[in-house]
Design brief:
- There is one protein chain.
- The N and C termini lie far apart (57 Å).
- This protein is 62% helix and 17% strand.
- Strands 1-2 form a two-stranded antiparallel ribbon.
- Helix 2 (36-58) packs antiparallel against helix 3.
- It is globular and about 55 Å long.
- It has helices at residues 11-32, 36-58, 87-110, and strands at residues 64-74, 77-84.
- By secondary structure, it is an alpha+beta fold.
- Strand 1 (64-74) and strand 2 (77-84) form a beta hairpin.
């Protein structure tokens, strides 16, 4: 059978954005420091990341994404790297984003 085409917004896209959005928030906070808008933007980005991780929980594909060769040791031995998302991994995404969002919200009052 032929593989199914991926939808325009797949769980893979959600996982990639989930990894990138907190990093963008960190760069905003590191670059602009105490500016109120940078904290609001970073909190919003982490909140969107949490929403995307909830989306990944609701639509887990249960397959390995983006598997690629990382290094070739010998002609018969290669190291591969990739993303694998199942229900447990998606639940951990939600948990990590929830804790990160709470830390970001409560740290604003102490800094």
């Amino acid at each position: 059978p032929l593989p199914r085409p991926m939808p325009a917004f797949s769980p893979f896209t959600a996982v990639l954005l989930t990894l990138l959005l907190p990093m963008v928030g960190f760069v905003l906070l590191a670059a602009f420091g105490r500016a109120k808008w940078s904290h609001v933007a970073a909190t919003s980005l982490v909140g969107v990341g949490m929403g995307l991780s909830v989306y990944a929980v609701m639509h887990p594909p249960g397959a390995t994404f983006l598997q690629t060769e990382w290094a070739t040791l010998t002609p018969n031995a290669t190291l591969r790297v990739g993303f694998h998302l199942d229900r447990l991994g998606a639940a951990m995404l939600v948990l990590v984003h929830l804790i990160g969002l709470l830390v970001l919200l409560f740290s604003r009052d102490y800094m």
